[in-house]
Amino acid sequence: MNSKLKELFCPRSVAVIGASNSFDKLGYHVMKSLVEGNYQGRIFPVNPKAGEIRGITSHPSLGAIEEPVDVAVIVVPAPLVPATLDECGKKNVKGVVMITAGFREIEDSKGEALQEEIGRIARQYRLPVIGPNTFGFVNRTFGVNASFTPEFSRLKSGGIALVSQSGGFCHLCGFLAMDQRMGVSKLMSLGNRLNVGFPELLKHLIEEDEATRVITLYIEGLDNPRELLEAAKAARGGKHIIAYKSGKSEKGDSASKFHTGSLAGDYQIWRGAFRQAGILEVSSAEQMIDAAKALDVCAPLKGPRIAVLSGQAGPGMIAADGVEKAGLKLARFSAKTSEIINRLLPPIAIRSNPVDMGPAWYDAKSSFEILRASVEDENTDGVIFIAMFASANVALVKSLAEYRKGAEPFKKPVIAVFTAPRGIWEEEIAALDGAGGLSVVPTPERAGAVMGDLFAANAFRSRASVQGLNGL
Amino acid sequence: MNSKLKELFCPRSVAVIGASNSFDKLGYHVMKSLVEGNYQGRIFPVNPKAGEIRGITSHPSLGAIEEPVDVAVIVVPAPLVPATLDECGKKNVKGVVMITAGFREIEDSKGEALQEEIGRIARQYRLPVIGPNTFGFVNRTFGVNASFTPEFSRLKSGGIALVSQSGGFCHLCGFLAMDQRMGVSKLMSLGNRLNVGFPELLKHLIEEDEATRVITLYIEGLDNPRELLEAAKAARGGKHIIAYKSGKSEKGDSASKFHTGSLAGDYQIWRGAFRQAGILEVSSAEQMIDAAKALDVCAPLKGPRIAVLSGQAGPGMIAADGVEKAGLKLARFSAKTSEIINRLLPPIAIRSNPVDMGPAWYDAKSSFEILRASVEDENTDGVIFIAMFASANVALVKSLAEYRKGAEPFKKPVIAVFTAPRGIWEEEIAALDGAGGLSVVPTPERAGAVMGDLFAANAFRSRASVQGLNGL
């Protein structure tokens, strides 16, 4: 199955069965995603009635296409799906994206029967199926948007994969990711997981997907959690895995049953299992994005000693509180670093840690010298760098972006907070974020929290390598 | 002092002592704030050397201005401040905004002496002074931006006042507030609080400022916390007060000493005192904004029973988890509401609570009927309404905005989550947010959390009214 997943996610051609010119049909939006997403492979709209869809001649059926088809995206109504899937098998497609809903997740028992039927057909042809009941997938590395949301083509390309049990979560996380400049490799919802679930995806992302460095999972409930946990263990010491578990409450549990057909299960058992499998657990979409971004681009946080450098004292204090709340501590600078700070900052500033770099607003070079000294200091493990826009310091982030251009990546994690009104600093932040070992978060509180996540993730990795040495 | 504060925040004329044409001087940015902020009063730049600043003839000294001056903004270097303040007294100004830093907050003991000296002068003339060591203030109700950050004039006008011990926090919170369409009345940093501190501001905001309905405080440390707590008690049963305390750790404590000259103090004592004074405590800038927005515009949350309606099941489950995490519970719909939901949604959707309104994407009217029924249901106390953008449902939020136009305000709090890529739904969200008893937050997790804050704030208010009846 797994070798087929590689082909499924990098198709040379895609057929959209149920492609449409009508805005009210999901087949309209899937066609829009493929065409406007600038997909470089062949696109075959399939619709017995339409002549052309988005300027491409449509075919009355999959069988009527003469060229080979790698992936079929199915958007026809549920009762038509079995015959359609059979056609896919006969056409020898490599994989299927089944957007259609109305199977195991519905109250009506017909849904369960229908899902069993399509399961049989998929087995017969050894067809990997993403879905049913999915919005599709996006592979930003390969440049294909096989989903009903064209806007996902705007996602920055990067090292983070999101595998979700919910399409809605992909939309939540995907749009927040755009705002936070998170670099995405793949984004997908597994829906009802006919035959492609978390274990298969983990195996694929760990072994076959070089672009993916951090794997994020959104889980509601699973019939066999052990498979996922076992698959995750294969990543230990290598790719980071982050999980967000919902359906923590009893009510959530029953909602999960009806959403994608699995009970959520006891949350406390999940928590322990995540820890054991070396999976970093997060408790919000925002925390997931912050942690994934930092793990993707920053050096590991090998110790708890954090330096906080801030252009304004208040946000520096808030970040310092955040560092301690995350179980880490504020570094005590070496004599050398203290000397540099005392030389560069007047005695009106707080020069211990957090450092108030306010007086260096007009002298960006001093800020960078303090940043460099803090990163190089043997008494620090990571650095938080904060600047609030204030009109007078408008040049600060631009100078930093120029100063960092082509520089050696930071050898310790640097988490930056740059807060400004919309339209200000945006290009400069985009240039800095994710480059050279620096990751940007939106608030000082979240800077402290993400340091805690970096530390936990590094502990998982260290433990894995010790266990590796012991042959455990 | 307090009657003077009203004049200070609504000045008919402002002099900027230290106004400048040079970008490197804060006097440049203060002039920019006043002029570009479209201030309707008179502006008098004071600078012995400049002829014109932003097209306005400058005066060599405050005394050289013939017309009366209500407020003087001082941006000259610290050693010149005593003489300048004396001039302000002689000119009979109503109040002073002292942006200049270098007083009690610096390591050098000269700072302490200088602060004592200006304290004496201010007392002599009974001059209320915001600062020193402040970025200034913004009064969006009156339309004056007397700060060094012109961009604060972009803040939406509304019922929330922010009084901060840190200018940096005002910038953090102010820019987040712009993103979240928070309506602001006043925004200010008190800096070193020469003679205007939290108690004076609370008294002013509670008694003299009709535009302010919610008061938010950012506190690092105070010499006399009791005064603040006593002043806060005057608001009980009336305006809501929200506080964010930083400097919770030992390190933070010492940073506070050097930032605005006061020790932060034991955090646990603060927590208890906030509760006793009926002040809602928050632990991040984001939580502060969410809570303040909802308290400003929503009906009170009088009970714990929350309905979650979501266009996508996953985010609905996340909000449901958030509701339970906040100590509240998921409502069980009345028979009447269940009947409406079952009539409007097909059996493929989750129709209990959380409700999956996915099938109603193309039929906005059904969504609104379910929303209305949920608000009117005797078994609910508040409603969370969620929609993730997905191309096919692009019209949903626009329809909701049209449907809500001129409608009666919701009688229970409605917290909405609308997540979309930048540029999509923005106008529609702006039209909905803050109107008709509905407040928007950016994620389903934060929707659950803000319901918890609404519930706590209502409990404070109920307790206050019971105490009032008992004459306590």
Write structural notes for this entry:
The structure is a homodimer of 472-residue chains. The first copy, chain A, has 472 residues and is of the alpha/beta class. Chain A folds into three domains: 1-132, 3-Layer(aba) Sandwich (Rossmann fold), CATH 3.40.50.720; 155-297, Succinyl-CoA synthetase domains (Rossmann fold, 3-Layer(aba) Sandwich); 298-459, 3-Layer(aba) Sandwich (Rossmann fold), CATH 3.40.50.261. The first copy, chain A, has 16 helices and 20 strands. The first copy, chain A, has a seven-stranded mixed sheet, sandwiched between helices. In chain A, strands 15, 16, 17, 18, 19 and 20 form a six-stranded parallel sheet that branches. In chain A, strands 2-1-5-6-7 form a five-stranded parallel sheet, with helices on both faces.
In terms of topology, how is this protein built?
Two copies of one chain form a homodimer.
Chain A: H1 2-9, E1 13-17, H2 26-36, E2 42-46, E3 52-53, E4 56-57, E5 71-74, H3 81-91, E6 95-98, H4 109-125, E7 129-130, E8 136-139, E9 144-147, E10 157-164, H5 167-179, E11 184-189, H6 198-207, E12 214-219, H7 225-233, E13 240-245, H8 250-260, H9 267-276, E14 280-282, H10 285-297, E15 305-310, H11 313-325, E16 329-330, H12 335-344, E17 355-356, H13 364-376, E18 382-388, H14 396-404, E19 414-419, H15 426-432, E20 438-441, H16 444-469
Parallel strand pairs in A: 1-2, 1-5, 5-6, 6-7, 10-11, 10-12, 12-13, 13-14, 15-16, 15-17, 15-18, 18-19, 19-20
Antiparallel strand pairs in A: 3-4, 8-9, 8-11
Helix pairs in contact in A: 1-6, 3-4, 6-7, 10-16, 11-16, 12-13, 14-15
